Amino acid sequence: MPIPTEESLIEYPSDFPIKVVGVMHDAFAESIVALVIEHDPEFHSGKVEMRPSTQGKYLSLTVTVRATSREQLDNLYRALSSHEHVKFVL
After folding, report:
1. Which InterPro entries does the record match to this protein (predicted)?
2. Sign (positive or negative) of CA dihedral 1, 5, 38, 48
């Protein structure tokens, strides 16, 4: 059941950071950026912060998207969560 706009804690449109943690892989960051662009066509790789884990097994990406609706964010979270190299999305 969708949350009514007046009950949302997020004001749309707004910049919304999403943290994506996944297994370190050559194309991980590129594939996440491509996925984000499908949901936010104005997104560009300059809006990505990358941090490798201490032992280099994982990569944490913070992507800041332009959120235009709850539906857009929900669809993006589902797409990111189902990516084969993603461990979790916050």
Report:
1. UPF0250_YbeD-like, YbeD-like_sf
2. negative
